[in-house]
Amino acid sequence: MKFSVGFRRLLPFLGYHHVLMIFIAIAIILLSLLLAGCSSSSPLIPGIFLISLYYKSYPPVYDTAQVDPGVTSAISNIVGSAQLEVRVGYFGICINPDGGSFLCSNNASALAGQVTVDQDPLNLIWVASTFKDNIVFPYLIIVAIIFAFVCFILLATFPGWHEETDEHGSERDVKPFPSRPVSQVALALIFVASIFVLVSVLWQHTASVAASTIAQDLGNGSVKSGVGTAAMILGWFGFALFIIVTIGLLIMILSIKLLDEIVDE
């Protein structure tokens, strides 16, 4: 009950820019989780991955474009009873050799030393390491998070509600307009951050789907692959929140400009 009363008192002083700051904070958290995927064996972290590769026997796909369809039998014999799963994140790789818990590291060689030849006969750990080192590019998201944080700081400088005494001696709540240059810089930063996240998420999605499809086709009948749903959701939700903040700031700047023009007239 006390919390409800306190919140109602606080609500009138919750400014428009505070809502935008909340959206930025949530987006930063989501993108940080995306970058942290597969970086440790902590609960839920191995579940945030770009692609997964794992051994699983299934009926192979035959096509007239295959020069040697019988190679699937040879691959199946090599794989044997292997059941290792490899998951790839931006800064780490997780392996599950026997259906137990995941082992995660940013060093593929260290992970490869934890398994035997029978557990990874087709070198899926090496394939995953190649994907992480040569295809995955996390630095646009890192720059976007930095830009968004600076925008968050700029929004925190916006003036809030405060009491002033008018010429009649009565107190009233007033809220000055934020600085136009600061607002424009904040808008530019969050807009660039949105573009960086969009490019990164599109590249992440395209590269993950392409690598997943090729890996499964090469291991036809013995290797399955998949794209991480959680990573896609985190990336696209982060982008959506940045876009909402960008539109919100643009509307605020245009509204203040319109009000200034009306007052001047």
Task: Tell me what you see in this structure.
Helix content is 56%, strand content 11%. With 265 residues, it is α+β, with helices and mostly antiparallel strands. A five-stranded antiparallel beta sheet has the order 4-3-2-1-7. Strands 5-6 form a two-stranded antiparallel sheet. A hairpin with a 5-residue loop joins strand 5 and strand 6 (171-174). Helix 7 (180-218) runs antiparallel to helix 8 (229-264). The longest helix has 39 residues, at 180-218. Mean pLDDT is 85; it is low at 1-8.
Chart the SSEs and their pairings:
Blueprint: H1 2-10, H2 16-36, E1 51-55, H3 71-79, E2 85-88, E3 93-96, E4 103-105, H4 108-112, H5 124-134, H6 139-156, E5 162-165, E6 171-174, H7 180-218, E7 223-227, H8 229-264
Helix pairs in contact: 2-6, 2-8, 6-7, 7-8
